Amino acid sequence: MIIGREYEVRKLNEYYNSKSAELIALYGRRRVGKTFLIDEVFENRINFRHSGLSPVDESEKTERKRQSRMKDQLEHFYRSLVEYGSKASKTPKSWLEAFYMLEDLLSEKCDKDSRILVFIDEIQWLDTPRAKFMTGFEAFWNGWACHRKNVCVIVCGSSSSWILNNVINNHGGLYNRVTHEIKLSPFSLNECERFFESREVVMSKYDIIQSYMMVGGIPYYLRYFEKEYSLPQNIDRIFFAENAILRDEYDRLFSSLFVNAETIKNIVGALFTKRRGLSRKELTELTGITDSGELSKQLKALKSGDFIIDYDSFGNDKGETFYKLIDPFCIFYLEFVRGEKRRKKQNWVNIEDAPDVRTWKGYAFENVCWNHRKQIKNALQIGGVSTTESLWSKRGTKESQGTQIDMIIVRKDNVINMCEMKFYSDDFEVELDYHKTLEKRKKLLHEKIPKKAVIHSTLVTTYGLVRNGYHSDFVNIITMDALFKE
Predict the structure, then answer these.
(1) Exposure of 334 by Cβ count < 10 A (0-12 exposed, 13-18 middle, 19+ buried)?
(2) Which among 20, 38, 64, 483 is placed 20 to 30 Å from 295, CA to CA?
(3) 445, 405 in Cβ contact below 8 A?
(4) Which of 383, 366, 372 has the alpha carbon at shortest distance from 275?
């Protein structure tokens, strides 16, 4: 059963039932459920499918290794051709020849009046160095498929940047040829809740948020939560047990998505060190990576894969763009799982109230909120209002105090929501010290906004707010129930 994805399912069926040739690019980070979606929507309707072989050795330092990988991919493609009825007697020697064989197979096998559906999964792995894969695919689409109104081709990839650069934004033979693109994003909290219900995993909203803090909305990871265990027991099993399922997932994830996996992990590790993220200058200084077009490509790849966001810091006079790590799985892994940080002999249930874990939960809840900005806007009844979202980190000086604001929503209706995120197991209470902190933040923020604008202090928390002498500090109160809305 498909959880969520209502829009994607509807659009895929519309494209399949159209009366035109269709080239659809489906992309999204690894483990997000792309292949499962295609299998469920088009069960028994796929006329040819093939999935690229995962790269084993990414060094590719010799021509011999490159040729070997290309040969393996072509042999695997030939096997798929034979499986679907091809009469070809030998393995193709090039991608041009391979796609000619596919054309022959589809021409012989399929009725001219019936829909022909071709599904190529993990397409980026077929594009080995110097293999000229795109030359063969372009020839297949431009010379054969696009001229047949009954042909529908779906290409799918976990490397969002590869799909964007080589298919959707191709400046060569595929320029403007993609008829539709679909990005499959991680589950929202609402979809996580429905996913757990479908698997009879009983979990409170409070615990679902915590599970999201650890693995995000990635269906592949969520399916490892078993109904007979509590949340802490599941976390122990998944991350910290002797043969924990996701113990090595971090390295596997990046190796499968990026040719330059170590460089990408270097960037992610640097961004992890700062809650607010890093400017480009700070990033290059921390990593030693040269500020270049290559760095731009790497940041774009991470952004398209839902690992990071970029934003303009509020009140930033320098006009710098900041890059912030928001992927929950990466943050949790780097905080508690990698290397010496692993809790080898401690159960999560015994340490989840430790000071460092409580601090992490506070930061992690901020990321949950950043990933649910749409729900926060809807709760404020400004879903249709044009806004920009940023955070603000002001360093203290001898002349002025510093501060940090978790999220600032700048609205076109002259209201600015100063959002505070608080993850608590009960109603949150504003005490005197925190009241003074809020007043200081509002004062500093007033210095940066137009005179016509007003500030609405907004609390995003789990359960609610204790009514006391300071509860009126907040104009808006948003509880976790609002974050679970569609």
Answers:
(1) buried
(2) 64
(3) yes
(4) 366
Three-state DSSP at 172 gives coil
- Which two tokens mark 238? 């998944």
Please give the structure tokens belonging to residue 247.
Answer: 């113990």
The domains found in the chain, sorted by start residue, are 6-183 (3.40.50.300), 189-247+342-364 (no CATH), 250-333 (1.10.10.10), 372-483 (3.40.1350)
Q: List, for residues 386-418, the tens digit of each pLDDT value.
A: 999 988 877 766 666 678 898 999 999 999 999
Task: Give the H/E segment covering residue 435.
Answer: helix 432-446
Residue with tokens 């122990």: 236
Which pLDDT tens digit goes with each residue over 299-355? 999 999 999 999 887 876 667 889 999 999 999 999 998 865 555 556 788 887 888
Extract long-range pairs of 340-348: CB within 8 Å, 24+ residues apart: 342/240, 343/240, 344/240, 346/240, 347/232, 347/236, 347/240, 348/232, 348/235, 348/236, 348/239, 348/240
> What is the residue whose two structure tokens read 């010496």?
340
* Residue 268 host element (H or E): helix 261-272
